[in-house]
Amino acid sequence: MNGTVYKSTGSWYTVKSSDGEFYECRIKGKFRTQGIKSTNPVAVGDVVEFHLENIGDETIGVISEIGERKNYIVRRSVKLSKQTHIIASNLDQVFLLVTLNNPPTFTSFIDRFLVTAEAYDIPVILLFNKMDSYSEEEKFEVHWLMDLYSKIGYKCIPIEAKQGKNVDKVKELMLGNTSMFAGHSGVGKSTLVNALETGLELKTAEISEQHMQGQHTTTFAEMYDLSFDARIIDTPGIKGFGIVDMDKYEIGDYFPEFFELKSDCKFNNCLHLDEPKCAVKEALENDEVAASRYRSYVQMVTGDEDNPYRER
Ligand code: GDP
Ligand code: ZN
């Protein structure tokens, strides 16, 4: 039989078979794991092959194989810094909720999130929430941001989760897909999921504060079927993705607007910092690359908090 993992406790996996039944499964013996070394061989979202076995008078599922993951997100354990935990796999998209204030979402955070998502091969949709609460000036800023990110290729939707405005547009994108909601604590994730009438209450809000303080609690993601044809992967305390180790030469690959430019840089190993005849810096001077994006890029490449392009 084959199915999809909906829940994991670390030793038991709840698998929904292709005929719609749920089975409690274990893994037994060794089987082919995917390239990555992780503390958990099977993750929520994995497509697995399993069969039923009778143990005593109990029938349990035994997972024998994992299908290839189209993508996955990880969390690093703080205590065991080298250990990687796969939070979830096979996501169709992540909605990143952004608010200008209450709480502020800085472009450095958005960009870091987008870079990680590009590296993980996960499409991101930006939801600019609390549109009702902004002054004219702030609205202008939001539209400026939406313009910036749409030009790079990210879908942007202004919403008012509390009033339910544009929530139908979010719902439409969710149909048939597995989605996740991310963003700082307080941006309105739970409010949005309520407004979507999913029949689900998110765990995110309760635990995120704790997680933000860096206390690592072993938390497991869980997948839910919604009241309409869509699935949500809920994970306590997710505001961003785990940081992946990225080579500094790799980071530019995850800025889509650099893509066309790179081949015009004089040096093919150009880091777009102080090299001569750099097409990215030229585009920056011509306002074809946004200053905030370039600033985020430099921050990620140099890891230098004092770099001149750093956001205050
Ligand atoms: P979460 O931590 O991301 O799950 O955020 P919540 O859903 O708990 O929302 C945090 C606060 O923002 C709550 O007081 C919500 O009522 C409020 N909020 C959510 N959406 C909106 C909105 O569209 N407009 C306004 N003004 N407030 C909102
Ligand atoms: Zn360059």
UniProtKB/TrEMBL annotation:
Top class in the EC scheme: hydrolase
GO cellular component labels: cytoplasm
Cofactor binding summary note: Binds 1 zinc ion per subunit.
Pfam families given in the database record: RsgA_GTPase, RsgA_N
Highest taxon above the source species: Bacteria
Ranges of residues in domain CP-type G: 80-241
Binding site for Zn(2+): 265, 270, 272, 278
Cofactor list: Zn(2+)
InterPro entries referenced in this protein's UniProt entry, alphabetically: G_CP_dom, NA-bd_OB-fold, P-loop_NTPase, Ribosome_biogen_GTPase_RsgA, RsgA_GTPase_dom, RsgA_N
Residues reported to bind GTP: 129-132, 183-191
PROSITE patterns linked: ENGC_GTPASE, G_CP
Main location: cytoplasm
Claim: Transport is one of the keywords in the record: no
Keywords recorded for this protein, A-Z: Cytoplasm, GTP-binding, Hydrolase, Metal-binding, Nucleotide-binding, Ribosome biogenesis, RNA-binding, rRNA-binding, Zinc
Residue ranges of every copy of the EngC GTPase domain listed in the record: 89-239
MF-aspect GO terms: GTP binding; GTPase activity; metal ion binding; rRNA binding
HAMAP family, per the entry: GTPase_RsgA (MF_01820)
Subunit field text: Monomer. Associates with 30S ribosomal subunit, binds 16S rRNA.
Family as reported in the entry's similarity comment: Belongs to the TRAFAC class YlqF/YawG GTPase family. RsgA subfamily.
Name of the protein this chain belongs to: Small ribosomal subunit biogenesis GTPase RsgA
Origin species: Flagellimonas chongwuensis
